[in-house]
Specification:
This protein has 5 helices and 13 strands. The protein is α+β, with helices and mostly antiparallel strands. It folds into 2 domains: 41 residues, no CATH class; 216 residues, Jelly Rolls, CATH 2.60.120.200. Strands 1, 2, 3, 5, 9, 10, 11 and 13 form an 8-stranded antiparallel β-sheet that branches. The chain has a 5-stranded antiparallel β-sheet with strand order 4-12-6-7-8, with no helix packed on it. Pfam families: Laminin_G_2.
Amino acid sequence: MTLLFLMHAISMQLVLVLDSEPADLLKILDFHSLPEGVTKTTGFCAQRKSSKGPDVAYKVSKEAQLSAPTKQLYPSSGFPEDFSILTTVRPKKGIQAFLMSIYNSQGIQQLGMEVGRSPVFLYEDHMGKPGPEDYPLFRGINLADGKWHRVAISVHKQTITMILDCKKKISRDLGRSPHPVIDTKGILVFGTRILDEEVFEGDIQQLMIVADHRAAYDYCEHYSPDCEVPVPDVPQSQDPNPDEYVSTFKVHFFSLNTPPQQIHGNHVSLIHICGL
């Protein structure tokens, strides 16, 4: 009985360890293989300290059509209640489009991050909260001015905070349910919403979801630092301190010395999109 309990504890700890890692959307969407509409380009830093060359980013044209099953974000658990969305991005000047959208299995958009002027953050949980009229709107912000921006969004309980370019912080109410659920049986769509005509065009270096709302506040330290700061030679998920935001179970796991072996109310069919 003790051995079975210990084995169960270890397996649960391994799940927590795996899902504590940032969900690298660019990797999940296979940007590295340069699908149609995607090419490599210079990123946020044309020259970075202790680096042999510039940051690597991807230039996205309107021809790009990228999607993946949402389950790939957190394959071992559900979508986190509190989380951070982190991106280093340079949208084409003047565009107004969704950088990412997450749909449930019924084709309802649950999550969406818009880039452009006065961008909206779309969030709708399993109870339909908040409604479209209450989606957080960030007036006075323009993410499509032709410049690089480091955008970090923290979702914590009933509040959403945007940290723009490591300096400006804007918080809005997020009237969601006490225990919100984001369905992971649908799809993740990059650069637009299903049926939208507007699509994202521009450059993107990072796009990650971290299962901790605190990660947004340290984005420019741990994930996308200034050009004077060296980072690992990896274009995405650049986190030199991955232990910062993980559960204490991770400590327990390693101490055992066991090696680890939604279009506002419109419903659309997802069957033909991702073969679900």
